[in-house]
Amino acid sequence: MMRLMKKAIGEAESGRGPREDRGVISARIISAARDEFIEQGVSGATFRAIARRADVDPALVHYYFASKERLLDAATTPPPDFLDNTQTAISAPLAIRGQRIIEHVVSSWAAPSTGPILYATFLCANVDERTREKLRASMSANFIGATSQRLPQRDRLLRAGLVSSQIVGLCWHRYIWKLDPLATMSDRDVISAVAPTLQKYLNGRM
Amino acid sequence: MMRLMKKAIGEAESGRGPREDRGVISARIISAARDEFIEQGVSGATFRAIARRADVDPALVHYYFASKERLLDAATTPPPDFLDNTQTAISAPLAIRGQRIIEHVVSSWAAPSTGPILYATFLCANVDERTREKLRASMSANFIGATSQRLPQRDRLLRAGLVSSQIVGLCWHRYIWKLDPLATMSDRDVISAVAPTLQKYLNGRM
DNA sequence: AACTATTTTCATCGTATGATGAGACTCATG
DNA sequence: CATGAGTCTCATCATACGATGAAAATAGTT
Questions:
Q1: Min Cα separation B41/chain A (Å)
Q2: DSSP assignment of B100-164, as one string?
Q3: What is the CA A185 to C1' C12 distance in angstroms?
């Protein structure tokens, strides 16, 4: 912004930018890249458009992130506490595990620090094989695998897979496609609508 | 193919192509476009790559379909009998409606005439606003709306939305992300695993 | 104040894209 | 066999892309 304003107003000061905290600029580029990935898709997002959105020289994006793949990687990596909270939720006592999982999902999508990352990950996993593999590993090993831990019956993996499928379908309806009624319900109502199904998948009769 | 062979072998016959049934070429272009959309995304699919895959001159793609949007439209339009079968499934007697719906979904994804179209539609709806609107209309009005018809209780739309969400989550796991165990189970097992949930959403206690 | 390493800008390269127009070709008529 | 409409190919345009290198600007150190 400062950069563009200088140009626009045509200040006497040289066009070369002042130093700014590297982390700040990097974060701004990542955020801009994520938005472009979401709106334009992986192929549609260009270094130039990302730079424009982050208000930065296109070559600078290339300086921070050598390739589009590394940008995509940075844009789809969740903060560590998200993974921690996931672990906590899927390790909850069996009787309340369904409730805890759906609460975790809903609150993560609502949080500004994780929602856009989930959004970008879900979308880019369809095109980019690397992101897909990341998501597959995360879902399969961490989620489906871990959720199934300490499930009493057989069908452990099937049960966890069904839990995951219900959650993914909910996310797509509510957060990505924004289909009514799931998109406009309150978090509370969504949780109470879905939790029983998850719980039945976890330890109900099949 | 004939075209390329002529070039490769260098026959005396002129390079200009012979007549071919317009429908055949058009269908080949649509199919090639769909594959490119699936593999490369909407922005990543190029007229040239589509033409190469369909073994056709790039300008010919432009001759048949003036814009990428019209190609995308053609590639994501399901055959009419798919819509008919959907109507039939969601109009089944309430007691067996869940079963009928999941059977319809699974068999549609398995069929070569509809599976790739569903695949492309699911993927492209994320980027292309027009496809998204098509899917939203199709899901929202035709599916969620119609499924809720003749449901006894209140919560009609919520029930239909939950049915839809479970189905979408299943599709994503099984057909797009190909996550185990849902991806490798037989159609029969998937149907019997999911049908009870759908039925509970339709007319169970909430 | 001079020196060095890092960050940022600018100009430019080769390539690929969507689009278009001119013309070659085929085929069904007259 | 001449004509004209529909089909297909080729060559080309302007534009946008990712990438790179040279140079300018800054910060930190001495």
A1: 6
A2: HHHHHHHHHHHSTTTHHHHHHHHHHTTT-HHHHHHHHHIIIIIIIIHHTTT-SSS-HHHHHHHHH
A3: 54
